[in-house]
Each structure stands twice: as structure tokens, then as C-alpha cells.
Design brief:
single chain, alpha/beta, Nitrilase/N-carbamoyl-D-aminoacid amidohydrolase, about 45% helix, about 15% strand
């Protein structure tokens, strides 16, 4: 019975934490959701139980967060379901690694729950790199509704916010267990409330009005159904719809037009005929530009790209660097040719090799593509190149309803705060938005709606943030501390 109750507590913890990840306004659940898990694992004295509980928590948590992978309409239901299960199992390795490492050292150290937090954040940080990188499920992403709290991401990044969430759970866990005489409890309480006060100051510092001057930009959210987008026979009607929406909403001073990722799946910017057709239909005046997602060919390589076009032709191109595993690229296929033969309906894009900054009339901006918006490091590198805004070209049309579009869009709030830059998110089916440098959403177009927005890209007047200049220093310091701790414990064991 005790073990059954423990399983239920672990599942309850995972469900609460997973629900906090959704765009339901329930992010506060993450402040207490790990308490049942902590209650169970601190009592365990054998590794078998730790493995079982960490696996169970990982499976349930990740299922709750990314179950929508099984509703991908871009492939068969069987492949979508298998992809979802594979993603959940791969992500569970992180959870198992966290609690396994903690179990083997917890009896050798003081402050073992704080060390658990350090291990957790270190694993989250490492998980954001590589071909299988996936920062999507980081604990910090539960907190995007609390703008005062997350302002401190300009110093510590999202992993500092994840650490805060863990500290809150540890604090309440100790309160429940009546550890009032423990001095650590009061230190933890101070660390919990401090970000709210500093965040209030930072939020108001970057609370700017929409600029009257700047690069006049028209954002178009066409809301083209994925089936129509993939229908070759209706390619002209699809393109004409986007052109008409654009043409009807152009103003005399529009300088830049934004179309989303894969806006024209059957038309190529590299085709003189297609490009001239667009130029003739769109540009009311010389010196105007169109920035659109488009497939781009270079030799035998095919890229998912952001392409900037003017009356003079193609001005500039960025090739997507962080491709979606399996959906856009089979991991390691560039090293093992036989993997290129895998065909489950995915595209096989080549990976871009370098960052790129676009420039129009001295206004500098990055134009990242879809999945890349969730990776702090890619955004930071571009922000460190003296840009004025970050633009995302997105197609979330693979998922026709929440929660995927909501989870995806809310992560852009962190990118604005980390780098203190406006974020302009241009999507096919939603959710398009303009986000201020303090993370507040100034304007948006909802899910499954066609619409346009007029925005201004102003010259950036802020200095680069600590995070922009130096990156994930907080996470790296914790990781180095953890490595040194492990070395010290190993050395002490050998000495004994």
C-alpha cells in the first residue's frame, strides 16, 4: 500500500508540473508541484526505487507536456504517435540522470536538496544543445505569466528561473516538514522573494511605449490550412490569398513585409519568374522589402530559410540552424549515409552553418525560424551582433489547436527579456505577436485567424544585457560546481 501511494504521489506531482507548462494561467502550480515527488524520493534507500520513480515521473510529466506531438496532421497518426512516444522516452533519460546522480551522492553531502536543484538545472542546460536539444520542457517555461519574476532572466537566463522554481518547492517542503529552526530555510525564503522586487524595478525600466518612428513593417498571418498549403493544384490560390491580404493592408510608408515560414511551398524566391511576380504585385514603391520563409537550394543542399527580397532581387538569406529532429532532418544523417534513406514523410533539410543579421536602412535584425525561437543560445548570439529586433517566421499549422501553439508562442517572452529586444513573431496560423523588451505582449493575432499587424522596428537604445554578452554564466557556474563536487567526493572515497 505504501508503494502504491508513492506511485500515486509521483504521478500527481508529474501531472501538476505538466499542467503548469500549458497556457492555462496555472504556472503557480509549479511552485508546489514537486513537493509530492520530494516527499517520496528523500525516503528511498535503494537505487531500484529511485530509478522507478524517476522514470515514472519523467514519463507522466513529458506525456502531459508534449502529448500534442501525436496530433501532428503532417504525417500519419501512427507515425505521429510513435514520434510522441519516442520523444517522451528520450526526454526521460534526463529525469533518470538527475535523480540517479543525486541518489549516489546525497548521503555524502549536506544541503542535498540544493544539490538536487543544481543537478536539475545543469541537466536542463546541457539538454538545450546538440541535434536533439529540447529546452521546451524546462521548468522556467511554466513562469511566463509572471513578468516581474522572470525579469531576472536578463542575468541568469531561463535556467536561473528553473532554479528559482526548485527553491520554492524545497522551501515549502521544509515548511511542511517543520524545519523552522533550520537557518537554510530563511536564506531560501530571501532568495525566493528577492526576484519579485528586482523584477518590478526591471519591468518598469523596460516598459516603453510603441515607437512612432522606425522601420514600418507589415506582418501577415494568412492562416492557410496545412492541407491547402500542401495541395499543388491550389498553389496559385494560396499565394494569391497572401498577396491580397498584403496588398489590402499596405500603407504608404510600409518598408518591410513579413510572411511566415514556408509561406510559398511551391514558389521559389530563386526563380526569376516567381520573384518578379511577387515584386510586381507587392511593392508600391522602390526600396520596399519582403522577408519570407522559403525553401532555398545551394548545390545538393536544401535549406529552410529566411529570404529577404527587394526590387533588385534576393538581398540576403539565413538558413535555419536548429532543425526539428526527424520532422526536418534525420539526426546524424550527415555522418551516416544510410540514415538518409529513412522516409517517414519528413523533409530532409540541410543544417545552416552560420548566424546571419539582416540590414535595411541601418536597421539590423535577426530572422530566426520556428523551432529556433525556443533556443536561448541561438537568440543570444544574434542579439550580441548589435541588432534592433528579433523576428520569428513560424508555421505551427501542423497542430490545429492548443496546446502546442500556446506553449510555443509563450517561450518568446523569455527571448525578449533575456536580450531586452522586441520580438516580432510572424506565423501562418497563429499566434503572431509583438513582444516588448520587458516581455509584455503589445499586440497579437489569435490562433486560426487571418490578420495583419502594423509594427515599427526602432533603433535599440538599450545596452546589451549581461546574458546577451556572457550567456548562461549562471548555469555554467552551477555545472562547474557540480563537476568539482563530484571530483572531490570521488577523491575522498579513494582516500578512504
Amino acid at each position: 500500500m505504501i508503494k502504491v501511494n508513492s506511485y500515486l504521489l509521483v504521478c500527481f506531482s508529474a501531472i501538476l508540473t505538466g499542467v503548469a507548462q500549458h497556457s492555462l494561467g496555472l504556472g503557480f502550480l509549479a511552485w508546489i508541484s514537486l513537493i509530492p515527488l520530494l516527499h517520496v524520493i528523500v525516503k528511498q534507500s535503494n537505487y531500484k526505487n529511485i530509478f522507478q520513480y524517476s522514470l515514472l515521473w519523467g514519463v507522466v510529466y513529458h506525456l502531459v507536456v508534449v502529448f500534442w506531438l501525436s496530433s501532428n496532421i503532417g504525417t500519419t497518426s501512427i507515425i505521429a504517435f510513435i514520434s510522441m512516444l519516442a520523444a517522451v522516452l528520450i526526454l526521460c533519460f534526463n529525469t533518470i540522470a538527475i535523480f540517479s546522480l543525486w541518489f549516489f551522492i546525497k548521503n555524502k553531502i549536506k544541503f542535498n536538496l540544493i544539490v538536487l536543484s543544481i543537478i536539475w538545472v545543469s541537466v536542463e542546460y546541457l539538454r538545450s544543445y546538440g541535434l536533439l536539444g529540447f529546452p521546451w520542457v524546462a521548468l522556467a517555461n511554466t513562469q511566463t505569466d509572471y513578468l516581474y519574476l522572470i525579469q531576472n532572466a536578463e542575468f541568469v537566463g531561463i535556467y536561473g528561473i528553473s532554479f528559482w522554481v526548485l527553491l520554492v518547492n524545497i522551501f515549502f517542503f521544509n515548511v511542511i516538514n517543520h524545519n523552522f529552526k533550520n537557518r537554510k530555510l530563511y536564506i531560501t525564503f530571501f532568495l525566493i522573494i528577492l526576484p519579485w522586487f528586482s523584477g518590478y524595478i526591471l519591468f518598469n525600466k523596460y516598459n516603453i511605449e510603441s515607437p512612432d518612428e522606425g522601420l514600418s513593417t507589415l506582418l501577415v498571418q494568412p492562416n492557410v490550412n496545412l492541407y491547402d498549403k500542401r495541395d499543388f493544384s491550389s498553389k496559385e490560390q494560396t499565394l494569391d490569398k497572401i498577396i491580397k491580404m498584403t496588398h489590402d493592408n499596405l500603407s504608404i510608408d510600409t518598408k518591410l513585409i513579413l510572411w511566415p515560414e514556408s509561406a510559398m511551398p511551391f514558389h521559389r524566391m530563386q526563380s526569376t519568374r516567381d520573384r518578379n511576380y511577387l515584386i510586381d504585385r507587392l511593392f508600391k514603391q522602390d526600396g520596399s522589402y519582403l522577408l519570407s520563409g522559403n525553401i532555398f537550394y545551394e548545390g545538393s543542399n536544401i535549406y529552410n530559410s529566411s529570404v529577404l527580397v527587394s526590387n533588385n532581387g534576393i538581398e540576403s538569406v539565413y538558413h535555419k540552424r536548429q532543425l526539428v529532429p526527424i520532422a526536418e532532418h534525420v539526426p546524424f544523417s550527415e555522418n551516416f549515409d544510410y540514415l538518409k534513406n529513412i522516409n517517414i514523410g519528413q523533409t530532409n533539410f540541410s543544417k545552416g552553418k552560420k548566424d546571419h543579421v539582416f540590414n535595411i536602412d541601418q536597421y539590423r535584425f535577426a530572422a530566426l525560424i520556428c523551432f529556433e525561437s525556443t533556443f536561448p543560445e541561438i537568440n543570444r548570439r544574434h542579439a550580441n551582433q548589435d541588432i534592433d529586433a528579433i523576428i520569428y517566421l513560424v508555421n505551427d499549422g501542423w497542430y490545429t489547436t492548443f496546446p502546442q501553439p500556446g506553449q510555443h508562442s509563450k517561450q518568446a517572452v523569455f527571448r525578449a527579456i533575456e536580450n531586452r529586444l522586441p520580438i516580432i513573431r510572424c506565423t501562418n496560423t497563429g499566434i503572431s505577436m509583438l513582444i516588448n523588451p520587458n516581455g509584455s505582449i503589445q499586440e497579437s493575432i489569435g490562433l486560426n485567424k487571418a490578420g495583419t499587424m502594423h509594427v515599427k522596428i526602432n533603433k535599440n537604445k538599450y545596452e546589451k544585457t549581461f546574458y546577451t554578452r556572457f550567456g548562461n554564466v549562471f548555469s555554467i557556474v552551477l555545472l562547474v560546481f557540480l563537476i568539482l563536487l563530484l571530483i572531490r567526493l570521488n577523491f575522498r572515497n579513494e582516500k578512504k
